[in-house]
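Hi team,

Filling in the usual template for the complex we talked about on Friday. All components are listed, including any nucleic acid strands or ligand strings, so the model treats them as one assembly.

SUBMITTER: L.P.
PURPOSE: interface mapping
COMPONENTS: three
RESIDUES: 1034
SEQUENCES:
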Amino acid sequence: MTAPPYDPMRDGNLQREFTEQWSDAAYGCFSSGHKFCREVCPVMQVTRNENHTPTAFHANVVAMEQGNLTIADVADDYVNCTQCGACELRCPNTLFTGDFYRNRTQTVKLVKAMRALAVDSGIEQPNWKRWVEATVDRKSEPVIEVPVEQEHVADWAHGLDLPIGGETILFVDCEAAFFRTSVARSTAQILKAAGIEFGLMREQWCCGGPAAEMGYVNHARSFAEHNVADWQAAGATRIITLDPHDYITFTEDYPAYFGEAYDIEIVHITELLAELVREGRITLSQPVERVVTYHDPCRLNKRKGIHESPREILRAIPGLVFKDVDHVTQWSYCSGAGAGFAIERPEIAAEISRRRVARAAELEVDTLVSACVWSERPLSRAGAEEGIEVMDLMELVAQAAGLDGHGIGDTSIPAVAAVAGADRNRGATNGAGTR
Amino acid sequence: MVGFKLSLQKPPEAKRINDDVIMRFDDVYEIAPEKMQIFPQQDLPAWDTLRIVASRWDHLDWMHAHWADSTLGAEEIEAGADAATETETEAR
Amino acid sequence: MSTAVALSDPVLDELRAILGDDHVLTGLSARYNRTRVPSPFPVHRWKDYVPDVVVLPRTAEQVSAVVKLANRYRIPVVPRAGGTGLADGAVPLRRGIIVDVKLMNQIHEIDLVDRTVTVGPGINMLKLNEELRKHGVIYPDDPASYPCSLVGGRIGTSGWSLLGSRYGHTRDLVISMQWVLPNGEIVHIGDGGGRKIRKSSTGYQLKHLFMGAQGTLGIVTQATLELVPRPEVEFAAFFAYPDYQAAWESTGALARSGLATLAGVVLFDEWKLRYLRRDDEAYIPQPDDVQAVVATAMYGTRDEVTPAARRLMRIGHETGGRYLGDEISQGDWASRHDRYATPLHGRLRDGQVVPMSWHCEDAALNYSVLPQVREEWHAIADRFIERHGIFDDWGMFAYTNGAYKPGGDYLVEIDIGIWEQKLNDENWAAWVQCKREITEVTLKYGGSITACHGSTREGDAEYVPAEMGGGFEVMKAIKLALDPNNVMNPGKNELDRSYQPVGSGEG
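RESULT (copied from the run log):
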């Protein structure tokens, strides 16, 4: 599991292979040097350190190719990225001509690849290393603050009578399975109320996305292989994701691992739910009296272009006053939670969250609604300072549909009990379940 | 279907527009691939091309709104001018 | 040449004492990534220019202390705001200390009564305007680098704005500055002494002297900027012409129209149309009888823009222009606010795509000579392309240049692509020679080497004394008086000559 010690001879080759593979992409950026990416980057907005720009990420490759820099000189730079995708979308080489040339800026892929080169060269970030090691036995993300055990991965579903297996599987992100279980419970109950038949995996492991984001490619792949085998054994033809991180992993990482053999349908919950609302298959009749604004999750909005379905759903909830901020302005917003950034750079991540919540506060809302369970923990912490509650879209929909989506209150559920205990110890308020 | 399926991400067949340009998706021009032999093209799935095109229009709209409360078009002005002339003629 | 830090430990310790450990960067990647700017760069000689250390100040006092230290130890200081300039102003020719001002990006004050906003030099105009929007005002400084350039660099270069015919350029929009002189003193620089006074006749007009000094006369640490009402409407109209001559005449007529809401007129020549025709961002196929294009834009209240736009359309039609329609006009205009060149528009002679770095020539020339300059510049470019296959001619633009009163002079741009991956000493030298020939044409026709980027690059800088004539002696005297130790961005603009003893030949 631990990477071998740094060997300059061997790693000279690794580095050469890397720069050969990335040289064209690096010059695609280096030749322009525009830096239109810089001001949309959530990390740059806080640190103002040019080392953390996509420009530097690409220029480093050129410098490495020329023998001026080595992986040891630059590894640290690439820690400073949430892989939100704002930069590579905003880059004119993508936005204006990526479709014309069928060649776009791929900063996220570069950051992942450079992190992998660092790991393979024996340069590991201490907290990421611990994080990934923790998933070896537990099969799910550490989640922190809450114990994670494989046998408890479906405890959140206690009392919901969900089958195992079937044509449609609901994949429940680790953070929702163990921490913010109300998101999982809300989603499951909404799907049932709309008449969607689905089951859970026999043995759900972490999607492997975070490990890949941190540079632990083989580890990520082994998780992917397990999950896909489980889906096949379950007879699944469709996977529903409730978190954008999983949606990205299943629609980008898994195709890269498995190629054409990978032909399962991946549906994100907001797209499905918007369709169900449109078709009247779920009725949202209970007013939810809140003044809200919506946080476009980076991995839905910037990375996948999904920004309409969550808004359609919000507009269908009665009683809500919805003060929107358009999805292009939100290219420069982020919670700071992605790609392990909050684990290695917690102060910067907290500042990014603080700024996101401050934007919401300017609108005089009482609630910030997100559609990404990973964003909700840091945003909730920042929200507590501003008196703004952070809710997940599914929690609001469950309320509007008159469903009991809240899990936090019911301490007979083991996963929930652990969370409630952790909450009490922290003395923090948590969104769902306090109303 | 609102989901993602890998088999549906292959871009459509190319239609030749001229020596330099082809078209796969409606109204989305692309460079003729034979011009990219030195600098390679990428394997962009359909969703990615469509995301880029939609984002570009969204960005341009955003830029208009950033600079001014509304955009005036010449077609609108000239229509207005014609209407004004007609009214004057009638008034006389 | 080694990239080991040439500064001694005591110097680094002093810097850390001034700025804090976290804000003194000696790592290789910190220094490599603050060496170049977007203009074509001799990549094969990157290590020759890598600075010794990078500092990230937060206050004017820190900047002052760094500059004083630099004087004590005779270390070059190179200020760096966005690093998005196109004339190497921020490239450290002699290494030294990079003073990276990006952390000084606060909005210090918004005064809606006296119509100013006061900011740090590290703030970007787009981000500033996002904040100003809720107050119904805007800071209308709009270069092609609008989403990424920073106020400090706009001042360092005396920037040009796409909306200059209406709102003026950076020097018209910056009211006054807090400035760290080359000796470390912190002073007010403006028109006279009032921080929010736009026009004064007290003393010397210092603001104009320091504007565009490219870091050679010190560092701006705060700027008080003009606010204008957010425009009610934006109007853009693009016209097509069957030949350049008609387009040029139409440009003249439009620019001379006297319409106060006119923000700018842009003339695209035939080479630019051929370039757009092969690979423009929106790829809009145009018939062969479209040989040149003129773009126009207007901003203001609906009441004033609507009749002005009607007149503009009439002038365009009467001078032979065919309107290209709302979709092209509006779409292309909206893309002009972030319009640095795309590398993949580079083509070899056989039509193959290669990523090219972008040289953007920015001479200022009078209306009357635009057609001749166009012919001579393209002929020069053609020769170099034939001989060294790594260059590409992306055509020319001419933009109205004079603030508020467009028509007399133009920012004239020829865009040359350079396949950076293939640069070596020989073709780099050829490139510099090409640049020199372009500059010589500019001076021959009574123009100015640079409307807005700066004259600090090889290929331009050698001609600064020739262009300035006797004014160069004044420049040298000022440089010597203000920066006796030559610490501020040394080597730029031929200002080393300020330090040569009188009668020593050159200078």
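MY TAKE: The longest strand of chain B covers residues 21-23. Chain B has two domains: 10-42, 44-92.

Thanks, L.
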